[in-house]
Design a protein that fits this description.
Blueprint (H helix, E strand, L loop, with lengths): L1 H35 L17 H8 L5 E7 L1 H4 L3 H20 L4 E6 L6 H8 L4 E2 L6 E8 L5 E4 L10 H13 L5 E6 L6 E3 L4 E3 L3 H6 L4 E4 L15 E7 L6 H12 L3 E5 L17 H6 L1 E3 L3 E5 L3 E5 L5 E10 L17 E4 L4 E3 L6 E8 L4 E5 L10 H4 L10 E8 L20 E6 L11 E6 L2 E6 L3 H12 L19 H38 L9 H78 L1
Parallel strand pairs: 1-2, 6-9, 6-10, 10-11, 11-21
Antiparallel strand pairs: 1-4, 3-4, 4-5, 7-8, 12-17, 13-19, 14-15, 15-16, 18-20, 20-21, 22-23
Length: 621
């Protein structure tokens, strides 16, 4: 008996010692893991909102100088504006992810520009935009600075650009790390830079779009008349802007191809009918497209009945011209930073692009497309168009949308034999070539009104053509890691079940409200009729009239009670749903974990007990 007591006492001591040992090991493991796992993050959001893309990581890892990013957020003034606060928190978290991935080369500062403080004055001096939701100004912007005097800013974090928040921040960091102004080589057969026009005998000003480009880039005009370019193209040129090329020589095409193969980027504007082109031949071509498997027909333009622009005819009547296109948001890519924020583009007699079966080494990503009510038509029709019926009768409905502009990417092979030892038979890195089958979109009359105010040229845009072209230039002049970066999921996650409940209850509520309004109108008509026909000679209200009023009051009270009950039921359903979700998150999941743990513990205890019993039986034998 004493032996059993001693054995029991010994087991208890062993169990206690084991628990103490486990507790010490747990504390030791936590201490060690806190050191070993420091800085490690785990993104458990459904769409990996805080996981940086590979391109962003490469930009951050390549930084060779310190950069400071400052988030100005009016946390005090914004008060209970949860949507704004949530977006600011996402921006703050993303900035910290940038800092963590930059190996100490990015420093993040959080600043609350409280009204009438030095921080608010600083935000204004840096060009940040304030919005007034209440009496006090609210800031939500980001500034960046490098180790010299370089600076960048996002005046206000627009929630409509939430999908491209990472892109905007990566673009800012890249610009701060690369402060040199990109050089664009211009090769054009159109009078895009102005100068003497032999057709009119006058000197013309540069197109407004060139004026805007020169504020952001250094523009260098290449010799287009000779038809030849040096090989290789000057190394300081990062972009080529090719407008309306016509029968380029093989030497020029070879120079352009090798420029792209060595990592250069280009914008190519073609047109089957360029209105600003001099001479009878208004079409352009680019032979390399056919070699890469991209179809472009220089003698065909797109007629579109849906996106047709309104024009005023000779008889002062307005009609829609199916050859002049006003592309709306539905015709623009919704997942590319280039077209984000562009609401309209105007084009004239644009051509069409498509990838054929031979385009195995390149891809064509659409940026601008026609509607389904579009048809390819011969360019020879254009001079003969006199009215809307001339084109609309030729257009087929419900056809496949035509690609009017897009990005060509991939690794094509050379269209030329090896000319020297420096010849590249294939692109070193995937090429990036923007192609638009229209040049008229660059002319002033398609996107802006130019005014002269006190001797200064004032550009008043009415379409997004210049913004679109600037976006393309800005995107292609950046890092390879920025090109092609797509949209990310948005932070806002609506409560879909709650929204469905509200929508259902609102429909019921709206139905009852309509019934109430109908009954009120009918009752008022009856009251008016009763008042005219059943008022007695003394001017008192008759008993029938009073009874009708009482019935109306009782009916109105009943319906209002029903309406309150509907709203009460809605709130109860939402509260029930919230309680259910809380039970799942707070109780059910921990209970499941506990049940699994207890089950495993009981199983192990029973297994150990069975082993001990088998051991005793073995010793007895």
């Amino acid at each position: 008996m004493r032996i059993n007591d001693n054995h029991s006492r010994s087991r208890k001591l062993t169990d206690r010692a084991g628990l103490v040992t486990i507790a010490l090991l747990f504390v030791l493991a936590v201490s060690i893991s806190s050191q070993l796992l420091r800085g490690i993050r785990l993104d458990l959001t459904e769409n990996k909102l805080y996981t940086l893309s590979a391109g962003t990581l490469r930009i951050l890892e390549s930084l060779d100088e310190p950069i400071t990013l400052r988030l100005y957020y009016s946390a005090t003034a914004s008060g209970d504006k949860q949507l704004l606060r949530g977006y600011a928190q996402r921006a703050e978290t993303l900035l910290k992810e940038f800092a963590a991935a930059a190996n100490g080369r990015i420093r993040v500062q959080l600043i609350d520009p409280v009204p009438f403080t030095n921080e608010e004055d600083e935000a204004r001096m840096l060009g940040l935009t304030a919005v007034y939701l209440d009496a006090d100004p609210i800031y939500l912007g980001i500034t960046g600075s490098n180790s010299t005097d370089g600076s960048e800013r996002i005046p206000f974090l627009d929630m409509s650009r939430e999908m491209f928040l990472e892109y905007d921040l990566a673009r800012m960091v890249y610009s701060l790390a690369n402060q040199s102004k990109p050089v664009i080589g211009l090769l054009s057969t159109l009078p895009i830079t102005g100068g003497y026009n032999p057709a009119t005998g006058l000197f013309e000003a540069p197109w407004s779009i060139i004026t805007q480009i020169e504020t952001l880039f250094e523009l260098r005009t290449l010799d287009a008349d000779s038809g030849n370019l040096s090989v290789p193209i000057d190394s300081d040129i990062s972009l080529l802007l090719i407008v309306q090329p016509k029968q380029l020589s093989d030497a020029t095409l070879y120079a352009i191809e090798q420029f792209l193969f060595r990592g250069g980027r280009a914008l190519l504007f073609l047109d089957p009918f360029a209105e600003s082109s001099t001479g009878a031949d208004k079409a352009s071509d680019f032979a390399l497209l056919q070699h890469w498997g991209i179809d472009y027909q220089p003698d065909m333009f797109v007629g579109d009945a849906l996106f047709a622009l309104p024009v005023i005819g000779e008889d002062q009547t307005t009609w829609r011209h199916a050859g002049l296109l006003g592309i709306e948001a539905s015709g623009l890519s919704d997942d590319n930073v280039i077209s984000l924020g562009i609401t309209s583009l105007n084009l004239g007699f644009a051509g069409s692009l498509s990838a054929n079966e031979e385009a195995s080494s390149v891809q064509l990503s659409p940026l601008i497309q026609s509607s389904r009510s579009a048809t390819l038509l011969p360019a020879t029709l254009i001079p003969r168009v006199t009215g809307p019926a001339d084109l609309r009768t030729l257009i087929r409905e419900d056809s496949t949308p035509k690609i009017l502009a897009g990005i060509i990417s991939g690794s094509p092979t050379s269209a030329f034999p090896a000319a020297n030892d420096a010849h590249l038979q294939q692109a070193l890195t995937p090429i990036s070539l923007f192609v638009a089958a229209d040049t008229d979109m660059l002319t002033d009359r398609y996107w802006a009104q130019v005014q002269n105010q006190l001797g200064h040229k004032v550009i008043v845009p009415f379409a997004g053509n210049a913004d679109f072209v600037t976006n393309v230039l800005d995107n292609l002049s950046g890092s390879d890691n920025l090109i092609g970066m797509r949209s990310r999921a948005v932070y806002t996650r609506p409560f879909t079940e709650v929204a469905k409940l509200r929508e259902h209850a609102d429909s019921r509520f709206r139905q009852r409200r309509d019934e109430l309004e109908n009954e009120l109108a009918i009752t008022e008509q009856r009251l008016n009729a009763l008042q005219d026909a059943h008022t007695d000679e003394s001017g008192l209200i008759s008993q029938n009239h009073q009874a009708e009023i009482n019935r109306f009051i009782a009916q109105r009270l009943r319906i209002r009670k029903d309406m309150r009950q509907i709203q009460r039921n809605l709130n109860e359903d939402i509260e029930t749903l919230g309680t259910r979700l809380k039970l799942v998150n707070i109780l059910l999941m921990p209970m499941l974990v506990a049940i699994i743990g207890i089950t495993i513990a009981v199983y192990r205890r029973q297994r150990n007990k069975a082993w001990r019993q088998q051991g005793r039986e073995g010793l007895g034998e």
